[in-house]
Please model this.
Amino acid sequence: MSIQGVGLLVLETVHIIATTKNFDTLKGRYELLVERLDTLRKAESNQQYSADINTSIETYKSMYYDRPLQEFEISSVLKPNIFNAQNFYCDALANCINRFTREQINEIGNLKSENAKIKRRSKVIEKINLAKNELQNKCSSTPSYLSALNSLEQYKQL
Model:
């Protein structure tokens, strides 16, 4: 895959990680991001790198014209050696679970039977616990670990 293609894929992947509410999507995309960032990091010293990445950015802008690039998305491809993917992932993980949980709380409120509500709460708590384990395993050394963990703790009494 060309650097332009990898750059475009990284931009798309960073956006998905930052906005998804699906825990499995987040984890899978993070693994992809780590692999592709490694490719960009190795290529960053190449003279053609900047031009290739600018082409990736322009392609992204034309494909997703209604989705302006954020600074963190641009820095992931322009400065891959500086971009802290692990810290980004940890913040995104907490945000993902928060989005998921808020959505589920709204849906639980619309369920008719108490049994359905209990089952749904159980599934949500299970996802929150999976996210906590993921935070512990992948994020305990990051600056955002405690704030991410605290944001998930608010749902203890679901």
